[in-house]
Structure formats: C-alpha cells, structure tokens
Amino acid sequence: MHDEGSDCVCEIFEECSFFDRNEGLNNTILTVQRIFCSGECKENCARYGVYQVLGPEHVPSDLLPFDHLTADHLIAGKTKVPA
Ligand code: SF4
Q1: Taking the C-alpha atoms of 69, 9, 36 and 20 in order, what is their torsion angle to the nearest 10 degrees?
Q2: How far apart are CA 33 and CA 78, in angstroms?
C-alpha cells in the first residue's frame, strides 16, 4: 500500500488517510512525510495527536501533520478554527 513507509514506526501509517489523499505529491514532500512519521517525530504530528486523544475516527482526512491549531481545536471539542 504505502511503499515509502516500510521503515516507518508510526503504528497508524498504513491506515493514515493523509497519504491516500496526497498520492502524487513530489518527492520533497514525501520525504518530509517520512521524517514526520518515523522515530520520535510522530509525537510532533498533529494527526497523531488527534488519533491518540480522540481515536482514529476523529482524524480528518485533510488534517495536515503540522496543523496543530486545528488539532488543538478538535481535541478541545471545538468545530471551528478562528480565522
Ligand atoms: S502523518 Fe502523522 S498520523 Fe499519519 S502516519 Fe505520519 S505520523 Fe502517523
């Protein structure tokens, strides 16, 4: 499925819908994603944070790994992020 993630240690990499939505992105972005999803870096991922606190069904498919503002609002139970 996600060949680039064979060395990934994020336990939800195979199910992470972020990669399904972003197939075809250039190699630079894919490299950044691999860095985010490996080692201790997953702890810095906004998607992983929502997954840990709320569960996989609450991780929006379009939530970016670095969008901590939206993640914080989801975790706090808010549906809208201030403009
Ligand atoms: S984007 Fe985040 S949640 Fe998805 S596999 Fe990578 S570290 Fe895990």
Answers
A1: -80
A2: 27
Is 81 among the domain residues? no
Assign residue 77 a region (left: φ > 0; alpha: ψ between -120 and 50; beta: otherwise). Answer: left
Residue 13 resides in a domain:
yes
- Longest C-alpha distance within the chain, in Å? 38
> Which atom of ligand 1 is found nearest the CA of 45?
2
Centre of ligand 1 from the C-alpha of residue 76, in Å: 20
Chain centre to alpha carbon of residue 48: 6
CA 18–ligand 1 middle distance (angstroms): 8
0.90 exceeded by pTM: no
Number of structural domains in the chain = 1
Nearest-atom index, ligand 1, CA of 5: 5
Positions of the chain with pLDDT under 70: 1-8, 21-25, 28-29, 31-32, 39, 79-83
